[in-house]
């Protein structure tokens, strides 16, 4: 991904290990996390000019521990006058990243808080970096993090690796949070949104760590594969002005082959060795698209089958719409339009803004250009995405 | 997702304001301060401001590379934007819940508009 400087690379990898070591030594996640954040900021200031220390992790643990002791002193000085323990060298354990990830995605937190806390405590990003990436003020992110930590404290959650049963119950929230981070970043990569691209790289990095720790969790594998297979198209997905390029019109020579190969390998192994789940199926669908050298070579029958499977595992408006798109590719736009009318009778789908977009495409392919134009314009008014609106408007203009 | 909560000033809102006692007007202003603080504390506030009177508005245009500044053309307009809250929340449901807390929601009402983002669906 190549977006991190060497110092950032070291800091972000070390962050959860350092935090794990400090929390284990002092017991308090909240204050320890603040102390580690300050140590990371100090390192980000000093290392680029003074050089990275021989043992960066030990340096960070030492600085964070001192800071943690100072924080404790401020809090407790009046109550307890006894001497504080000498400089400790807390140990680093292999489970720390996973334990932290599970803590940051605690069910008591809202998804928005889970994202902010995960990026800081596990990802090692500063509050300022997270704020830039999420396009909100730093103080807003700071509040989200302190609220999240308070919620964790109130819920009585501790820095301990849960049992396997508990972990199975907690992992869906972790996968969802990582996917949310990925999607925050997996957007148009032009101009002001440049920083957001880093978030998809960060999500891939964290999911890769999780996959290395839990290689037999099929849905973690599916999630990683889905991210890689989606990220692979990023160079072809937008024009320089930020406008969307539809999948069928993307220059496929720009796709990242290495990411596609890795994603395909991971999802193939997961589908073979583990119980099937929605992330694996989504990854498989993305893989089928990515493996077609030209849009016309897309294996639509396989995609339709996979959407039917996905519908049985995790139904939703987008699954229904994509199934209809695949159906229309095979049996023609009129069959697709009939299926769309039937599906739109369901109130859950009737109000979905992409129904109009899909209808517009199918009408255009069926040759009903006047109605297609109307539907494109209607769809462009309903979307909340600027690139999508531009795209839909340009399709409408083309039919004038 | 970001949403803008817009507070308009118009004849109805001015009439509602005139009907209030001093204490009620003070409470109304305090309500706005409290809401800003509450949004900040909840980690949803991006920005909130009140706008100066349209009498102070200036109109800027560029013609042939020349900047032309004139008084706002909207001085006699009966309705104008008086203030806003820009919030970042999970979904529309949350945005509407915050909008209902704006003091003006209890007098004339407030408008809630989603902000376009840069996300995109691959067609």
TrEMBL record, chain A:
<dbReference type="InterPro" id="IPR036388">
    <property type="entry name" value="WH-like_DNA-bd_sf"/>
</dbReference>
<dbReference type="Pfam" id="PF04542">
    <property type="entry name" value="Sigma70_r2"/>
</dbReference>
<dbReference type="InterPro" id="IPR013324">
    <property type="entry name" value="RNA_pol_sigma_r3/r4-like"/>
</dbReference>
<keyword id="KW-0804">Transcription</keyword>
<dbReference type="InterPro" id="IPR014284">
    <property type="entry name" value="RNA_pol_sigma-70_dom"/>
</dbReference>
<dbReference type="InterPro" id="IPR046531">
    <property type="entry name" value="DUF6596"/>
</dbReference>
<feature type="domain" description="RNA polymerase sigma-70 region 2">
    <location>
        <begin position="14"/>
        <end position="75"/>
    </location>
</feature>
<dbReference type="Pfam" id="PF08281">
    <property type="entry name" value="Sigma70_r4_2"/>
</dbReference>
<feature type="domain" description="RNA polymerase sigma factor 70 region 4 type 2">
    <location>
        <begin position="101"/>
        <end position="152"/>
    </location>
</feature>
<comment type="similarity">
    <text>Belongs to the sigma-70 factor family. ECF subfamily.</text>
</comment>
<dbReference type="InterPro" id="IPR013325">
    <property type="entry name" value="RNA_pol_sigma_r2"/>
</dbReference>
<feature type="domain" description="DUF6596">
    <location>
        <begin position="171"/>
        <end position="270"/>
    </location>
</feature>
<dbReference type="Pfam" id="PF20239">
    <property type="entry name" value="DUF6596"/>
</dbReference>
<keyword id="KW-0731">Sigma factor</keyword>
<keyword id="KW-0805">Transcription regulation</keyword>
<protein>
    <submittedName>
        <fullName>Sigma-70 family RNA polymerase sigma factor</fullName>
    </submittedName>
</protein>
<dbReference type="InterPro" id="IPR013249">
    <property type="entry name" value="RNA_pol_sigma70_r4_t2"/>
</dbReference>
<dbReference type="InterPro" id="IPR007627">
    <property type="entry name" value="RNA_pol_sigma70_r2"/>
</dbReference>
From TrEMBL, chain B:
<feature type="domain" description="YCII-related">
    <location>
        <begin position="1"/>
        <end position="118"/>
    </location>
</feature>
<dbReference type="Pfam" id="PF03795">
    <property type="entry name" value="YCII"/>
</dbReference>
<protein>
    <submittedName>
        <fullName>YciI family protein</fullName>
    </submittedName>
</protein>
<dbReference type="InterPro" id="IPR005545">
    <property type="entry name" value="YCII"/>
</dbReference>
<dbReference type="InterPro" id="IPR011008">
    <property type="entry name" value="Dimeric_a/b-barrel"/>
</dbReference>
<comment type="similarity">
    <text>Belongs to the YciI family.</text>
</comment>
């Amino acid at each position: 991904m190549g977006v991190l400087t060497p110092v950032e690379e070291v800091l972000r990898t070390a962050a959860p290990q350092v935090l794990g070591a400090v929390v284990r030594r002092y017991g308090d996640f909240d204050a320890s996390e603040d102390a580690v954040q300050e140590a990371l900021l100090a390192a980000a200031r000093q290392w680029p000019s003074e050089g990275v220390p021989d043992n960066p992790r030990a340096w960070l643990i030492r600085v964070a521990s001192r800071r943690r002791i100072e924080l404790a002193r401020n809090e407790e000085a009046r109550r307890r006058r006894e001497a504080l323990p000498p400089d400790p060298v807390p140990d680093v354990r292999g489970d720390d990243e996973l334990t932290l990830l599970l803590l940051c995605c605690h069910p008591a937190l809202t998804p928005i808080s889970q994202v902010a806390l995960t990026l800081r405590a596990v990802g090692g990003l500063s509050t300022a970096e997270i704020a830039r990436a999420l396009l909100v003020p730093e103080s807003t992110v700071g509040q989200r993090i302190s609220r999240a930590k308070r919620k964790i404290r109130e819920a009585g959650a501790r820095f301990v690796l849960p049992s396997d049963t508990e972990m199975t119950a907690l992992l869906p929230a972790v996968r969802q949070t990582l996917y949310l981070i990925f999607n925050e970043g997996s957007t148009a990569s032009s101009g002001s949104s440049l920083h957001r691209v880093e978030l998809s790289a960060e999500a891939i990095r964290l999911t890769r760590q999780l996959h290395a720790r839990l290689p037999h969790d099929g849905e973690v594998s599916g999630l990683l594969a889905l991210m890689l297979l989606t990220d692979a198209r990023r160079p072809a997905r937008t024009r320089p002005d930020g406008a969307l390029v539809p999948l069928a019109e993307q220059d496929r020579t720009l796709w990242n082959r290495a990411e596609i190969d890795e994603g395909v390998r991971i999802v193939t192994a997961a589908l073979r060795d583990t119980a099937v789940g929605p992330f694996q199926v989504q990854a498989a669908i993305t893989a089928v698209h990515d493996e077609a050298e030209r849009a016309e070579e897309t294996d639509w029958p396989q995609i339709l089958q996979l959407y039917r499977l996905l519908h049985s595992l995790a139904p939703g408006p987008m699954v229904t719409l994509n199934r209809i798109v695949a159906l229309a590719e095979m049996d023609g736009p009129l069959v697709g339009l009939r299926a769309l009318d039937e599906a739109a009778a369901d109130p859950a789908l009737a109000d979905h803004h992409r129904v109009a977009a899909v209808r517009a495409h199918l009408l255009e392919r069926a040759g009903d250009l006047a109605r297609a134009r109307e539907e494109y314009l209607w769809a462009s008014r309903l979307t909340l995405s600027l690139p999508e609106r531009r795209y839909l408007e340009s399709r409408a203009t083309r039919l004038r | 997702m970001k949403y803008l909560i817009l507070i308009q000033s118009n004849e109805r809102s001015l009439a509602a304001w005139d009907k209030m006692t001093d204490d009620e007007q003070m409470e109304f202003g305090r309500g706005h301060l409290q809401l800003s603080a509450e949004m900040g504390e909840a980690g949803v506030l991006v920005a909130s401001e009140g706008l100066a009177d349209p009498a102070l508005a200036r109109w800027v245009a560029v013609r042939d590379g020349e900047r032309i500044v004139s008084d706002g053309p909207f001085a006699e307009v009966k309705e104008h934007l008086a203030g806003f809250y820009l919030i970042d929340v999970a979904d529309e449901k949350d945005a509407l819940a915050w909008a209902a807390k704006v003091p003006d929601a209890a007098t004339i009402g407030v408008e809630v508009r989603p902000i376009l983002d840069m996300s995109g669906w691959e067609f």
